[in-house]
From TrEMBL:
Signal peptide: 1-18
Chain ranges of the GH16 domain: 74-352
Listed PANTHER family: GLYCOSIDASE CRR1-RELATED, GLYCOSYL HYDROLASE-RELATED
One Gene Ontology MF term: glycosyltransferase activity
InterPro entries cross-referenced by the UniProt entry: Beta-glucanase-like, ConA-like_dom_sf, Glycosyl_Hydrlase_16
Gene3D superfamilies registered for this protein in UniProt: 2.60.120.200
Record's keyword annotation contains Ribosomal protein: no
Keyword annotations of the record: Hydrolase, Signal
Pfam families recorded: Glyco_hydro_16
GO cellular component, one term: fungal-type cell wall
Protein name: Similar to Saccharomyces cerevisiae YLR213C CRR1 Putative glycoside hydrolase of the spore wall envelope
GO biological process, one term: carbohydrate metabolic process
Species the sequence originates in: Maudiozyma saulgeensis
Amino acid sequence: MIRGYLLLLSFLLSFVWSLPLIKVNEQETFKPTTPIFCSKNLNCPEEWPCCSPYGECGSGPTCVGGCDPRYSYEDDSCIPLPVLMYPFNVVFHHDFVSNKFKFGSQNNARYPTENENVNQMTPNDNSLKNTPLEAAMHQKRFIHHSKFLITKSDRKAEEMLYNYNFVYSGNTNIDDDTGEILLTMPKHSTGSLIASTQEFLYGKATVSLKTARSQGVVTAIVLMSQVGDEIDFEFLGSQRFDAQTNWYYQTELDYTRMQKQPIYTDSYENYHTYGFDWNEERIIWLIDGRPVRTLFKRDTWDPVTHNYKYPQTPARLEIAIWPGGDADNHPGTIEWAGGPIDWENSPDILQYGQFYARVKEIHIEPKQNEHFNEIYKCITRKSYQRNFDITELLRTTCSYDHYVEPKFSERSLQWHCDYTPRVKSLRDSGSTTQSRRSRFFKKRYPSSLPLKKSQIQAFTNDSETGNSNKNITRLEAILYDRKRLLDFSKIGLVNDKNNSNDKLNFTKSQILQKILQKRDGTDITNSASQL
């Protein structure tokens, strides 16, 4: 049976990118009019540099939550994302704040959603709460995804990091009777999504909710990383006594891993708590505190690729409702979801005008991972003292550098302790926004910026016209390994890097071969004859 990541992917492709465009003016949006797709075979173009988690190119918000560095225009098109570090945690509880409206009537039971107010929603720095829904969500530390970290100001970006724990999109709403977050799906819509603003690398995440009901309606709880590592629960509205558990490594589709787990009472009528307990060696899925499945890292070894295909990169928590049984979906998706959705006569459509799931509580509790010491050194070195202010951990961000480790595994993570992540407008990206960089990153790795695709092209083109020495110096200032600076005199490109009269010329293919050999860890001697 076709299911799993491909199904969620097919929904989210239509969901996120079919939302009404959030406008700065009539011409300017954060996605192209005609979708541009990104994949392992095709990176995003410079104009729309960021690859969304769902395989489409964009800018602005696309470069923030979930941006996939593998298929974006450059490594730094995606901004470094905030990471929740031990001992801090994130908690949402339904009764933290009361907001004054009642769920139950089709006409006035909910705040107007973004689909009804798109022209009022302008993502400037002074309008984070310019609709009743946004004001209510703000009190619960939620912000619309199109506004999070979209600002020209470091200070305002820092305020967002401290003030908001979650982003929302689609038809998300609030029930004032209970204070719960409502993930709603009106007739022929694409559903709703909430996600944590911070990723975490290993820890516990639990969600207490009531799932949606009816044939073809799917509720999902997912840990999703930027590079496609995934751990999930999925619930079919027509099978309310079962939960489907699954996991993926870097978006590799494997339909053999799904397992069904029993839920002892109706998941629509009753609250249940679903959780993940994830560390370096195993993942445990839990229902109401009861372990229902365990995956060990040792069991994910792939003898062909010689690596563990185990989720091992920082992930954010996502909770969604989506129309698996929509008529526009693939027939296999509709079959897996339990059949086509009845948009006219389903009980919740008749009574409320929408399908919905209720989110009562969310807890995210990271574990202390092996990178803590690196971040600790960063913070103490930045402050030039041994005293450790634990609140500095709230500034932790991370990014990926495929020149350190080309497989985008945990080893490719770059940690920052004094970087304010932001994108200055809807049409900008991480590479076009000059925000404050990590002092530690500069001090410890003064030449550690990754070599961009455009720089490789310029470097290799110049080398064919006899300008290789100038560019070798520039490459030495760009390429920097964690262990030692890339010394071109040791890989056969020059005999003496201090000899300014050395006029060796090399072809594009020869230089690229040497760069790739060095990047991939191939043993290279200092013999120029290797060329």
